[in-house]
Each structure stands twice: as structure tokens, then as C-alpha cells.
Amino acid sequence: MQLRYHPFRLIAALLLTLSCALMSAQVIKGTVYDATGAVVTGARVMLMNQDYVKLAETKSRDHGEFSFADAKQGLHFVQVKMPMFLLCQQHVVVEPDKTARLHMVLTVARGEDEYDIVSDIQPTTDSRSAQVAEVRAGGRVQGFKRVSGTPPAYPGAAAKRGSSGTVALFGTVKADGTLAGLVPLSSADPDLLRASMDAVGAWRYEPMKLDGISVETNTTIIFNFRYK
């Protein structure tokens, strides 16, 4: 018996197969913000492999969003460049059939002023010997972990409404381990945001240490509220 295939059924099957292939692709999505929590458009976003070879490039769109489709599995780096801001870089691990989401926060480039202060008095000793100073070797970074405080509980009101989603917060861990300058980057629900802000307000960290000295560092905190 000869089987006959309807052309429209063949087209539908082909489209279904194509849509499944697109759904299963590894995707990197993200949003670019500045340190106030506002979205940044027109930023240059680059996808790099672990050897820092550029794989793709795009720009952040109207809502600060960007994406890279069909990313290969494994470790990658995403870099964001914008005039007057420091280079922002974040690593991302691409897993099979998953969408990796990033919150990239740009900080303003540091300023620098230089002034010549001239003395009318001539030195009484050899200026070369007077300028000899100890040179310290550096570059050792240690620490940075939460030492107290817990993630927020799921707010009952939000749970009853069926509200879920991601809350992303940006702040600075100060040298004394306290969290300051907390800014919400995104929130799916006001109750979820309120619970998140209240929880992290009590957090304490072991601060980042540079060459044994505690220093401030920026951090992004993400809570994914979901149902079982």
C-alpha cells in the first residue's frame, strides 16, 4: 500500500520540528543598567569565549536588553563597553537547553586630576635619595562572602496571588562588611521586592580584601521566587 502525505501536513511537521529546535537552543539574555538602576541603551555588548576570543557582538536595546542565541555550552564572558563608564565583565556558564540571564551594571569611570606643586626652597639633601620609597607587591584578592543574614521568605500575599519572578538588587559591600547603596534593578512584584530589600538590609559580609586590606566592592544579589 502506498502512503500519501498531504503537503500541508508536511509543512506543519517541518515547522514544529524547527520550533522545537529553536526552543532547545542555548541562549544568553541580559539587561544593562547604570548604578542608579536605570537601563542603558546603545551599550556595546560582546560575547567572549574562555580564551577571550570574541564570538559575537550586539548593542543593548530600548529597555537595556541584549541577547545571544545559539551559544555553545561551557564558560563564556560577557563584556559591556560604554563611553565614560568602566568596562563591565561577567562570566556565564551556558548549559544545555537553558537560558542564562545576566544583570550587567555599569559604573562611572574614575576621574583623575593632576597638579604640579612647586617649592621655592631648594632641598638640602640629594633629591634622588629622598624620593626612595618602599614598593609593595600586590594583586592578592581574598574574602567576600555572606557571614550572616538569610534570604527572604516567600511573602504570603504574593504567593496567594500567584506572583513569581526575579528580584535583582545592586549594592556596595563596604569595608566593614555592611551593605550600602542598595538599588533595585528589576522586580516582578512589589511584595517580592519589599521582602528582598528587608532581608538583605540585615546581611553582613566578610568584605573583599586586597593585599590583606578590606576594600569596598559592588555586588548583585538575585532572588528567584518560584513555585514547586
Question: What is the mean pLDDT?
Answer: 84
Biggest pleated-sheet summary:
4 strands, antiparallel
How far apart the termini lie comes to: 50 Å
Radius of gyration: 25 Å
CATH homologous superfamily label of the largest domain: TonB
> How are the strands of the biggest sheet laid out side by side?
3-2-5-6
- Count the domains: 2
CATH topology of the largest domain: TolA/TonB C-terminal domain
Unreliable segments of 5+ consecutive residues: 12-24
Q: Give the percentage of residues in beta strands.
A: 35-45%
Helicity, in percent? Answer: 10-25%
CATH class of the largest domain: Alpha Beta
Summarize the helix and strand pattern as letters: HEEEEEEEHEHEEHEEE
The number of helices is 4
Estimate the global geometry from the Cα principal axes: globular
CATH architecture group name of the largest domain: 2-Layer Sandwich
* Helix vs. strand class: alpha+beta
How many beta-strand runs? Answer: 13
Summarize the structure.
This protein is of the alpha+beta class and 228 residues long.
Can you describe what's shown?
- This protein has 228 residues and is α+β, with helices and mostly antiparallel strands.
- The chain has two domains: 26-106, Immunoglobulin-like; 141-225, TonB (TolA/TonB C-terminal domain, 2-Layer Sandwich).
- Helices cover 17% and strands 40% of the residues.
- It contains four helices and 13 strands.
- The chain has helices at 7-23, 127-130, 156-161, 190-200; strands at 27-34, 44-49, 54-59, 65-68, 74-81, 88-94, 99-106, 141-148, 165-173, 179-186, 204-210, 213-215, 217-225.
- The strands form four sheets. It has a four-stranded antiparallel β-sheet, with no helix packed on it. A three-stranded mixed β-sheet has the order 4-1-7, with no helix packed on it. Strands 8-11-12 form a three-stranded antiparallel β-sheet, with no helix packed on it.
- Strand 2 and strand 3 form a beta hairpin.
- The longest helix has 17 residues, at 7-23.
- The model is unreliable at 12-24 (pLDDT under 50).
